[in-house]
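Entry:
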Amino acid sequence: MTNQQEIINTIALSRISYYSFEGLLNLYRTLGSATNVVEHRHHIRDVLPDASDRLVAALENMDDMISRAETELEFDMNHGIVPLCFNDRNYPKRLAECADAPLVLYYKGNADLNQRRIISIVGTRRCTQYGRDMTARLIKRMRELLPKTLIVSGLAYGIDIEAHRNALACDFETVGVLAHGLDTIYPNAHRDTAIKMIENGGLLSEFITMTNADKRNFVQRNRIVAGMCDACVIVESAAKGGGLITTTMARDYNRDVFAVPGAVGQQYSEGCNLLIKDNVASLITSADDLVDAMGWNEDMEMVRKAGKGIERELFPELTQEEQIIVDRLAMHDLQINMLASQTGLTIQKLSALLFGLEMKGVVKALAGGTYHLLKI
């Protein structure tokens, strides 16, 4: 867990508003931490000779930002909000690969933001019954094929809220990425759903409390929806819209992009059809198509076998890496991020190993991304 002073310094550094996301992240990476940046703020050119005059001036006058960051951290701690700094082990690792990833995220929930499979589902705010039906079908079938998948969207009207509500109905964890601080919910009509998501998923934002849901913030938050996923699915969209912006960002991040086709001439199918026509998105009509395109068939086959009732091996043979995991879990339950820290294995590698151990009946996944060793 990141120490409090580093959190305060990271929040403060993220408040240098004129500086680009890429510039802030490069500064942070160059010096290794926000604390190092703050400690050198009065003589930043000693460690960064090419620092611009504007950056020098901004760093020289960070006292108000630091004070605001201290107030923010106190609020977060009192309201169950967890600030996730870029170097925090719980920070979304897929998002961290993006050049314009935010230095800090604010999170309230219990889902693992580094789950093995993460899908973003986006689309128009003015969805039709067809869009609602397709969203429900996709998620229901995905629950049957690959039940341990995190569903991400933006809690907006239309396809976003349909994705969240169907995910909850199918007992999927689902995370909403917001365009404002976590001290409020916008739109207010989705408050009840948001509360349920905190209990089975979570709410995520890069915006400090008391940040309003301004129009520009929605485009900014779309890059998080796009960057933290393996695949982005757009269900319905007009020829222009926020969903298309998200898919463009996802494509730029080298994420797989999929679109559900619609009838020719229908306003809210034009965007999806154009994405397919221009080879920006792959056409899917079912969750089966998505799983096949993503190469998740092996995982699906393991789930099918498990569903048929594989007999648990009484004395399962473990690989060396599996044994390392078992030895750690023998002491106490651990989240995957803690396992990564203690074993030296990557999140991606651990996810695959843990899934295999689940199929062998050796470990059990608990709420909040924690794993428990069963008696063997």
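The CA atoms of residues 222 and 249 lie 8 Å apart.
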